[in-house]
Amino acid sequence: MKNTKPIIGLTCNLEMVRNNVSFTLYLSYPEAIKKAGGIPIVLPLGNEELAETWVSMCDGILLTGGNDVHPKHYGDVPQSELGLTTPKLDESDMLIIKHARKQNKTIFGICRGSHLINVALGGTMLQDIETNVQNSLNHLDKGDRTKLKHMITIEKESILYDLVQKEELEVNSFHHQALGDLGKDLRCVATAPDGVKEAFESEDGKIMGTQFHPEELGKFNNKMHELLVLFIEKCKGE
Q: Which residue in 90, 111, 183, 185 is a FRET match for 71, CA 20 to 30 A apart?
C-alpha cells in the first residue's frame, strides 16, 4: 500500500554525550510532525551530494532549534556573548536549505532553524539580544518549554494571521540571538514588544520561520498544532 503521508526531513544538533560528539534532537519535534500528519526522518551532518540526495527523498524540511549560528556565515566576527557554535553543522544545514530551494520544497524553520534560513538567504543575525537591542525583553527562558513568555504582534497580511485570526499572541521563548536584516524574499510577519523579529514568511509562501516553538505550544494550543498541520499540507503538494 502506497504511503500518502509526506516525508519531512528534520535537522538535528551536535552535542557531547558521554564524551562523544553526538547528534541530538528534542523528541517534541518528530512527535509534533507525526501528530500533524507527517513522517519524520532525521538528517545528520552531510555534504553537497548528501544534502541534494536527502532533500530529494523528502517532501519538506523542518530546521530545528539548537546552537548559535557562527557569525562567519553572515560576514561578522564573534562577540563575547556568542554561545556555542557548530560551523560545520551550519554549513551542512545551509546546503539542505540551498537544495530545498532548488527543488522547490517547503521549508519551516524554528528558532536556530529560522536563523539558518535567514543567513542562507543572505540575512544577518544579532549575536546577543541583550547587548544589541535597547530595552530588550528576556527572551531566554530556561524553564518549562511550554511556558508562555511574551506577546507578539502579527501582521494581518500573512499566513500566520490567516491561521490564528489574532493580531496578538502569547508565545514561548528560548533564544538569546535574534534575526537582523532579513534575507532575500523574506518578510517579517510578527514582532515582540521590543522589536525582535518573531516570525517571517517568504514571498512565494514556500518558507515559514518562527522564533517561538510551535512544536511545544501545540501540546496545548490547537492553533500552534494547526500551524504544523498547515506546513504538512503544503508539503503534500510537492
A: 185
